Amino acid sequence: MMLVNCTGLSQFYGNKLALDNVDFNLGAGAPIALVGPNGAGKTTLFSLMCGYLTPSKGEILILGEKPGSAQLLGRVSALPQDAKLDPNLSILSQLTLLAQLQGMKPNAARQEALRVLTLVDLTEVAGQKPPSLSHGMSKRVSIAQALMGSPELVLLDEPTSGLDPANAKKVRELVLSLSGEITFIISSHNLDELEKLCDQVLYLDQGRLTQSVSLQSRNQAQFDYLTLTMQSCDADSLTKELSARTGVIAVTSKSSNEFVIQYDPALTSALEPTLFSLFEQQGWQYKMLLKGRTLEDTLFS
Ligand SMILES: Nc1ncnc2c1ncn2[C@@H]1O[C@H](COP(=O)(O)OP(=O)(O)OP(=O)(O)O)[C@@H](O)[C@H]1O
């Protein structure tokens, strides 16, 4: 069974069309990214998947059921963009209460609350109330809440916004470690992060689904890419020299020291050694050479 089926999905707020005839199907598996500029309709799509909104037109099914239906209780959960915790209850009490609302007995609910707090590395704040937590800690508590029970689908809206780099990394590691059991759909503006986590990317723009990119099939494409960052070089000479190498199809400069090289792997067995000897001949220093191209380049070039 598909995890999400979306057919002709449209959503109006009054006269404002926030989602425009969106169609896609998603299977269970590796994390899926939902990307798009501000106002593209990402939160609206999440709200429809959670059952907070009813579609104006079209249909959405999660695990074959209508979002919000009793059959999905405990199987789908979400970290909303502006998740709020109850300021008057300790973290442990409110997570325990939420676990009880999922049908657990008080003792089991408390154990479950402690289990998810351990996952986000926050057992030490179990007895504290939300106002004494930092923004990043509150965010991790909300992520813990989304992991309670055994959900099959977890929707994370901007899970690392406002987190420091170390905690953002912890959240990414947690998502990866759980992604064998849970399918995550992650909305974020951080393309570098999504690239590390996701195999598939849905790109929304002005309410329309304009691209659905599989990062795996991107790696099996006819042409390959290298992304090159130079320490020092003459950009025009470098572009000219690179373009003259066998198998190179195009060289695009992203900035004065960053270049994307598109090449045909059938015509050159290994381009990298050729590049290294070119740098040596010319006395150019490179900083970084990456196989492939970034998600940003894939979506916007
Ligand atoms: N409750 C609402 N009433 C009226 N218009 C709304 C409402 N919620 C969203 N919109 C509009 O619908 C469109 C899509 O909004 P949405 O919040 O889904 O976008 P988003 O992709 O999540 O944006 P962001 O990246 O800024 O969070 C926007 O034009 C927004 O102004």
Automatic annotation (TrEMBL):
Residues in ABC transporter domain copies: 4-231
Keywords on record: ATP-binding, Nucleotide-binding, Transport
InterPro entries: AAA+_ATPase, ABC_transporter-like_ATP-bd, ABC_transporter-like_CS, ABC_Transporter_VariousFunc, P-loop_NTPase
CDD domains for the chain: ABC_DR_subfamily_A (cd03230)
GO MF terms held by the record: ATP binding; ATP hydrolysis activity
Entry protein name: ABC transporter ATP-binding protein
